[in-house]
Amino acid sequence: MAEKSPVSRRTFVQTAGVATAAAVASKYVAASPAILKVKAAGAEVKYGFIGPGSRGARLMERHLTKIDAGRCVAVCDVYQPNLDAAAKKIGTNPDKYNDYRELLARKDVEAVFITVPLYLHYPIMRDALLAGKHVFCEKSLVFKPEEYHGLKKLHQDNPNLMVQVGLQRRYSLFYKLAEEMIRKGTIGEITHVFGQWHRNTNWRRPLTDASLEKQINWRMYREFSGGLTAELASHQIDIADRMIGESPLYVQGVGGLDYFKDGRDIYDNILLDFVYPSGKKFQYSSITTNAHLPYGGLKGMPEFGEMIKGTEGTIEITLGKSMWFREPVVAARKEEAGKAKENWVAGSTVSTVKAGDGFPLLLPDDEITENDSFLQRELKFARRWLYSKGVMVPEEEVDPEYAELKSFLECVRDKKPENIKANIEVGLLDSLGVMLSNKAMDEGRRVYYAEIDKMGVAT
Ligand SMILES: NC(=O)c1ccc[n+]([C@@H]2O[C@H](COP(=O)([O-])OP(=O)(O)OC[C@H]3O[C@@H](n4cnc5c(N)ncnc54)[C@H](O)[C@@H]3O)[C@@H](O)[C@H]2O)c1
Fold first, then answer.
1. Which tens digit of pLDDT belongs to each residue from 353-384?
2. Ligand 1: centre distance to CA 371 (Å)
């Protein structure tokens, strides 16, 4: 029988009864990024953007053009086509620079977005902090052990300057709910996390001029890149650390360059094991020759996801979808003890879940509250029923990428460093995981996190 394709909540709202849909949709529209246009005088952070290549252009076009907390006044790129395209995309008539130091010299620039290749993150971030700018830098925050120590020191010396790393899952409601469920013990004691990012793609970008190979395809060369570990695993290493709630003790792994024999020197497949002081473990893989995602709860989602296993349940999660499962053995035991009808608290929401059945994590919008009208309540019940049948999936109303950028500009504007979720500590621990994983694979041994104390420091 053909599978029914899940429909999103938005689609459902569109096809629901007109009066009900209008009532509920009006709330969603009010929260929609596209029309957030209320602007207080002097409330804009003036920012510069350095390195608007593929990632930068996406952040600009999809999100920054819709965020009123900041205004782009300057753009810098060494590659003229990207510079010109970015200045046009952002639409604020920014000044254009080829040398980032000229951009940093501008007094009116309060903050910078840095989306250059990994090997340039630290030198540009360092100069930006020394010039007194707040920094949003893409992951992985730093590339080498000496940069890890250097950034730590710079931050200690300039504690008022904010640093945020581009780990957008830190701004996802699904991940927040998962973390809350875990802390409340909903899936018992966590013992293992599994994660994968499996692709069936090459990574090679086409060139118009062969001499630009290393400039355009920097990702494929160790001189400039941390490979799959930095580009993909970094997101999920942060998830494992966050859900487990510890920093790893050591990492071990194997990497290979077995398929793409085209001159690149990074691994095209990696397998990693992280062991935490409590004995909890995170097992990770990233390959480039097969994209199948085997987690049943994440059916329909592409390439990447994580599975968090506890003694009483499992959470399967990715950007855009999350399911949880009660552990049948535990559920049966509770049923025997006469607790079959108990409510299971998931974050701020409550639902009754049958053992073995997966159930989506419910976002706050799906919560039934006292203030709901009859129609709102009916619609929520209907949605939840459709979720439970797998014909509709809950959807985050705000894209975590939009949320991370808006939050950064608001933190700078309101001088609220404490509100940065993907902060410098998160970014440093995450890039430490990346560096040590690569070392573990290169040297074929366990690499202890404590080794960083002696790595990259002058002796
Ligand atoms: N958070 C995410 O999900 C995510 C996704 C994709 C990429 N990234 C990260 O974003 C960063 C950039 O990746 P990308 O794919 O956009 O790379 P890219 O090569 O497409 O873009 C990098 C840009 O930086 C420019 N550049 C290089 N040297 C420069 C210099 N000295 N001064 C100014 N500009 C310079 C390049 O010309 C290019 O336009 C990487 O660190 C990557 O890991 C993050």
1. 555 568 888 877 777 888 888 888 888 888 77
2. 46
Q: Please count the structural domains in the chain.
A: 1
**Contact status, residue 310 vs residue 182, Cβ threshold 8 Å:** yes
115 lines ligand 1 (CB under 6 A): yes
What distances in angstroms separate CA 279 from CA 19, 61, 191, 282, 432, one per listed residue?
Answer: 54, 44, 8, 10, 20
Interatomic CA distance for residues 394 and 384, integer angstroms: 9
CATH number at residue 317: 3.30.360.10
**Among residues of the chain, what percentage have pLDDT more than 90?**
73
Q: Does residue 402 form part of some domain?
A: no
Q: What are phi and psi of 69, to 5 degrees?
A: -75, -10
Q: What is the pTM of this model?
A: 0.88
pLDDT tens, 207-235? 999 999 999 999 999 999 999 999 999 99
**d(Cα 291, Cα 314) in Å, to the nearest integer?**
22
Q: Are 6 and 390 in contact (CB under 8 A)?
A: yes
**For residue 383, which phi and psi values (nearest 5 degrees)?**
-60, -45
Structure tokens at 383: 């949605």
Distance 45 CA to ligand 1 centre (A): 22
Count Cβ atoms below 10 Å from residue 214 Cβ, excluding itself: 13
Q: Which domain holds residue 293?
A: 170-344+355-361
* Closest C-alpha to ligand 1, atom 6: 55
CB atoms near residue 155 (< 10 Å): 17
Tokens of 404: 């991370």
